[in-house]
Design brief:
With 98 residues, the protein is of the alpha+beta class. The chain is 30% helix and 32% strand. The protein starts with a helix and ends with a strand.
Amino acid sequence: MTIEDQIKQAIESQIPDSTAEVGGDGRHFEIQVVSPVFEGKRTLEKQRIVYAALSELMAGNNAPDHAIARLDTLVPCLLYTSDAADEGLAEDLGVRLI
């Protein structure tokens, strides 16, 4: 399993209802995490949640994950139209940066 896969698995197993995308060069990683858990939280709180999920991978001098170059924490977003709201339907618009 690649380190990118390990990061993705760690995040998705520790943060409820999350999806993670991980890229990078094997030393520095760009991570995007989408979860409703982030709703209403400040940036620092959201980052702490992700770093806590990665704590085992970031521990020690020989940690496989020691540098996160970019971390985006997003909340899933739904759009309700007046007709859809009446029928309890929604259209998934993806995510929004909060």
